[in-house]
Amino acid sequence: MSNIQVGLKVGLVISAALILTGCSSQKSGSGKLAAKQEFTTAVDSELSTVDLSKTTSVQTFEVLNNIDEGLYRLGKDSKIENALATKTNISNDGLKYTFNLRKGTKWSNGDPVTAKDFVYSWRRTVNPKTASQYGYLFSGIQNADAIQANKKSPNSLGIKADGNYKLVVTLEKKIPYFKLLMGFPLFFPQNQKVVEKFGDNYGTKSADMVYNGPFKLTSWNGTGMTWTLAKNQNYWDKKAVKLDKLHYQVTKDHWDKKAVKLDKLHYQVTKDPSTGYNQFKTDKLQYVGLSGVLAKNLKNNKNLVTRETSSCYYLAFNQKKKLFKNLKIREAISMAIDRGQLTKKILGDGSFNSQSFVSKGLSINPKTGKDFTATTAKPDSLTYNPTKAKALWKAGLKELGITKMSFTLLSSDEFAQKQVSEYLQSQLEKNLPGLKVNLRNIPFQTLLSRQKSHNYQVTMGDWYADFADPITFLNILTSGNPSNVPQWSNKQYDKLIKASSTTDAGNADKRFEDMTKAQNILLDNQGITPLYQSASKNLLSSKVKGIIYNTAGATYNYKNAYIVK
Fold this sequence. Notes:
single chain; globular
């Protein structure tokens, strides 16, 4: 999922996770529950639609992970835990899953949650009329691809309700990460009556929704800079939820957020880079992200915690445009960027140069026991070399029949992204003779729309893992994928990705080999230009306990969060 899209570095699930219990140097308080179970945290962008069939944003998926619930919840270290499913039976050939559902669960309006809600939700998402950018994740479920190609009816999808509390899913092929997918909000249920009642307004404000998770979204009008998650009194496990409220406040220079045993979580957007820190000092915020100078100056603060994310920030060149079809031009731009200086001096938040599209720390090679990225063949174009960049640049311009070039770099107006784009402008104009880079930093929703329609020359893109498998990254750059921002296409790459999920799906070693070869093709061809893998430095109040953080997707689960005195 994309962070820019709705500001959230979407995605949900999971690679490494950890429980926040405060820094070891902090005093933990009395350990007794505080009388007021409310928590306020900062976010870096406004919330967009919370329609799970339509969103692609990390921030939205984090909210969905707390206001709704599916078959499983993903716990510490991506552990799969039963949620609405109480028992799962898998056929011997691995192609049929039967889920027994928890009885007596309700939506926030009192309607029962049944197997039919899953059937309706999945069919709605894969229906081409919904135009879900995430529909490709259903590939492998019976008829999903044919439905999305308008060759079969959504009603033919391999999912059916056997009564109210039994759900049967039929696959066309084994999906190695299928259970992880079931913990991703895209596969959660939806209340058909409510979706049809609100129509196009569904998911555009908190009043036009119902919820079946630990919290309900409240106080959100669709455009506001604050919103709240309030304890859902109809939630089946409400006794485990201690938070009454979680308040969100949008802070443009921060991306971290959230918390949940609370009855309410308050979200608030603040535009000024130092505002969040000042509010933390006065206890108006209990959790806030830091970047740049603040992150460096507060490196020894006792409340500081660092979070790595399963992510990749990259440059996407619109490869339908003549200028950027030229490989030498793309390589020259890549080699003109000093990523070490970018991550250490500009960002300063723990982000690092992974020289990979698939994030480091996401997945282990079953044959070697090493990280997936250890077998990446890193091309020279990912190494800072201004001399070689200049030579490639001149050769590329000559092939294009021009002596100079200008383009506009499109990025979000979030504080850190403004800093990154300004740095890139300076680096590229300094190292590549005859280049003029214009900057355009726009609101994230506008950026999302422009990237989706490919209305740009060069843009800053990002992707956050949806689940702990390399395919969550590699899938999006296959030909025609809705999230393929640069419109890059390579037949051999497509062939390898297809093999990893079909003929080689049951062979873990061969599957990883397919994906490794595919990434090497991608990087060598500069399909995208990786810039850095993000991390964040955050200030967390020692009073806040029990939050589960999922590295993949950079999301938080607040169900078991609470505040101590």
